[in-house]
Amino acid sequence: MEGEVYEKELKAAGAETLSDGRNGLRIHGWEIESSNRSILNSLQLQQWEQKLKTSHMPEMVFGDSTLVLKHINSGTKIHFNAFDALVGWKQEALPPVEVPAAAKWKFRSKPFQQVILDYDYTFTTPYSGSETVETNPEHEKGATSEEGSCNLDWEDCEEQIDVVALASKESILFYDEVILYEDELADNGVSLLTVKVRVMPSCWFLLLRFWLRVDGVLMRLRDTRMHCVFGKNMKPIIIRETCWREATFQSLSSKGYPSDSAAYSDPSVISQRLPIILHKTQKLKIPDNITKHGVQRAEVGGGSPLENQIGNIRQVYWKHP
Questions:
Q1: The pTM is what?
Q2: What is the residue-wise DSSP string for 33-71?
Q3: Of 61, 66, 59, which is closest to residue 44 (Cα–Cα)?
Q4: Largest Cα span, the chain
């Protein structure tokens, strides 16, 4: 009975589930698909380390887990994956957060090993999603699909995501949460990157969240929200809101908040206690279609959107005592 009700809701909203056992749906010109896979094995981790040119990786990397939102007519894809997020971590290269000397020993992999935390072991990333364009959309007969990273035209704007509308009791046609990577910081806290998506008859909404708690030292929250309203007579517009919050345990304690790490297990509950260090809102107008000649490719090693973003925000960070 529930399945029949769900199918009726999908049909009424002009949506349909994806075929071939894929997890997701197609609605108002969008194809939205999520994939939750197991963590990378040791061989795959070695391959990633070589590609990223690092010997450090999070404890659990869900390398094949993804969320993809594709606008079918234009070939525009907004997608989320662990590899690109770790590229952002490697490029930003924040200084390591200092931990109490008594806790450093937890990072040893062997007894009596000297511990040198000379890298950002928190795996903090400025990642806000990946952008890809299918230069020959699938509806063109005989066309060969070609994809490339691109610099889509995100514009700074004053518009805000309508949180009131999102809080309305509209039926949820599709929901999923995808974990990209996680690390318990050798029992010194948590580092977690996830993306959640929710699709309603009127819109889709997602939250990409990086959550860090270094026990007794620091909390860091980096949220990217995206919202797209469906409309018959309008081109799709995506609103993207980026909000970064950060505070030391010491600063929170001085304001009368608890200093016990157990009080900070849920970032949604304590986010308002963390001061905002970066906030911006942008919008993306999805074109009718993007041809091969209209794609701006981002060259690896210079001029990419991620590198430009990192260059603009380095000044907001400081080394915590």
A1: 0.86
A2: EEE--PPP-HHHHHHHHHHHT-S---SEE-TT-EEEEEE
A3: 61
A4: 67
